[in-house]
Write a structure and sequence with these properties.
Helix content is 78%, strand content 0%. The protein is an all-alpha fold. It has one domain: Cytochrome c oxidase, subunit III, four-helix bundle (Four Helix Bundle (Hemerythrin (Met), subunit A), Up-down Bundle), CATH 1.20.120.
Length: 180
Amino acid sequence: MEVPVSKEKKFLPWIIAAGVAIPLVVGILAVAPKMEILGEFNYYIFPLFNAIINGTTFLVLLLALYAIKQKNIALHKMLMTSAIALSLLFLVFYVLFHLSTETTKHPGSGTLLYVYYFVLASHILLSIAIIPLVLITYVRALSEKFDQHRKIARITLPLWLYITLTGVIVYVMISPYYPQ
């Protein structure tokens, strides 16, 4: 008799691949030669889109938390799926922007610069960690392993909220220094 493979085990190679590939691609973008994918286009609109997406994702995550506290599982599932879709859209704009533009340096100094770098560094490091966490949390829900889902969601949700909020903060702090 063949033992069925759980959904989580079935998706584990994909979760690992995404958890490695996405940060690797993002890291390569930092040093890759830049190209005009969309021709004469103002690529600096993408960070604004991403700040809006991050802010929206933050609100969607809060609504999803509220929905599950109200035991509205269908709404919670729809909102969490939406948050993942928004994150994928963010990733598309992020890749297009960083394929096409040089990194903008923050010219500040003193305490403001240290705050900026702390927020940016924590945002980047946690963004790497959140990829497998979100995917594992989501797959556990789909697999109806709700006890395990709740345990990891207690870690995933606060981190994801922090990442989306700091994404907006980083944009606000760096956007005045984008080339005009």
